[in-house]
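User: Hello, can you help with two protein structures?

Assistant: Certainly.
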Amino acid sequence: MKRLVILGGGESGVGTALLGKAKGYEVFVSDKGKIKNKYKEVLIHNEIEWEDEKHSEAKILNADIVMKSPGIPDKVSIVKQIHENGISVVSEIEFAAKFTNATVVGITGSNGKTTTASLTHHILKQELNVGLAGNIGESFAKQILEKNFENYVLEISSFQLDDIKDFKPQIAVLLNITPDHLDRYNYKFENYIASKFRIAMNQTNDDYFIYDADDEVINNYLKNNPVQSKLLPFSLSKIIENGAYLDKDNIKITIDNNQIIMPTSNLALEGKHNIKNAMAASTVAHLLKIRKQTIRESLENFQGVEHRLEEVLKINKVHYINDSKATNVNATYYALESMNAPTVWIVGGVDKGNNYEELFQFVNEKVKAIICLGVDNEKLFNTFGNMVDIIVETQFMSEAVKIAYKIAEAGDNVLLSPACASFDLFENYEDRGRQFKNAVRNL
């Protein structure tokens, strides 16, 4: 019996444990932190051996295969020891994919993954039997075990791609590449770029690679590192013969001389970046033979993703917008770009080596006040201090929202778009977004 050791007892870890046990592995789950009660109960109920708040080397280093949760970096000592012992380390999507013959759509990129994966799933589920997994919702492994969908849309992070060996989506989508998570890539942008392109690493000429042809980082990498799959670029500025492009206010998608046209006038999601997300999702749908009418209706009635430019409330003619999912500068760039009124901007958190320069034009143009919400706000003060009349700091979400309420006037926006990770003051970006929404509702 092969021994499967799982590092990390969260959603992907527990899902993999269940699938592994069902497929005849001897399974052991080990977590350096505390395993949440809801996951402990599942492990106990399924008689799967586990430990938390420690890693017992004796129980880990006798593994045949290790599934490592994406949050654990390679430089952790137990992971180094596993590698030194020549034990294969894989991610959940690598392990799980071997147990399904489903058509897999894999979506990655620095920004827009969750929105595009959710939108793609929203379109496909109108006509296909399809699951949504990866970096979102119920784990891929658990869905393969319990639901056995014929198709999957997977949102995939670079950390998940770092530990694939044979994983191959039939349709890969690469939305964009901007510097993010460089702390995990020895502060080398080229390492992060290579990591994103692993999504196409095992693709063949029968597979498809959908990507943003306006992204110079992607174009340059493709020139020097061609992929084997069929290319379907999308663009807002170029005319694309095979792929998608914007012609005035219409998205035109051509695949093998079969063209469909989508008006952008009624898209549910606003902003240029969302036209790109819609292009990517529609290209996938067109490839999978979804009817044009279905694609169009789905683009118009899609509700969007929580914590991503989410309209919370309108109070005294002021719009409160939750964009807590903006954990890097590029995401905040899109948020500020889509603001069409004077904006009170709540920003800050754990800075991953951010360069805020690309935001200057919007801050000068649209931002009337900045509220810094982080443990250390010095860099924000130094960067933006002389661009706005009002810049203040706080370490409490409730206070940040009260200050914003005092500053904002009728017609203004109050935007939470932190451009940073949330771990200094919050559990995660969801916690940060929920606290913002609660504070707004309590005004």
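That covers the first. Now for the second protein you mentioned:
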Amino acid sequence: MAYDRYVAICHPLHYVAIMERRSCAWLVAGSWLSGIPVSFIQTTLVFTSPFCGPNKIDHFFCDVAPVLRLVCADTSRNEMSNIMVTVVFLATPFTLILTSYTCIIATVLKMSSPGSRHKAFSTCSSHLVVVMLFYGSGMVMYLRPRSSHEPENDKLLSLFYTVVTPMLNPVIYSLRNEEVKGALWRRVAGKRLSPLQ
């Protein structure tokens, strides 16, 4: 989506040629298929380790870090794998997204019309908020050393990037629609103006 916004704002006349169906298919396929080897490697590393003790984790779902707490052997190889995956699949896309938004902001600031600037900023700001929430909480979760992981903080962070951010995503994007905004304001104003029961 960041690349789509970059092309739409920085190269608007070439948008149709650049974002053709084949390009979009390659972007989607690349993002989906890149996760398969990572999942396979991490699953193999975790479940070939020896487990002992309690078989319950203090977490909402079976994430790698909580499951590694149950391993009886040295988990440094798993932790190194997690850091590499985080850098490649979280920090790298986040850096690319921030770079694209830097180019977008530079282009928007060069626009002469205040209306065009406002429209471009409002188009991109909602996506940037969701990106910051998702990648920020994910990187805090996975780039911390194991010694600083506390179960309560881990649960809160994982809840944030797995539930809160995806839940906010449709809300943020639907609030850009004028009809939805109008209905929301009418609903809020109607609640305030209705007599107390």
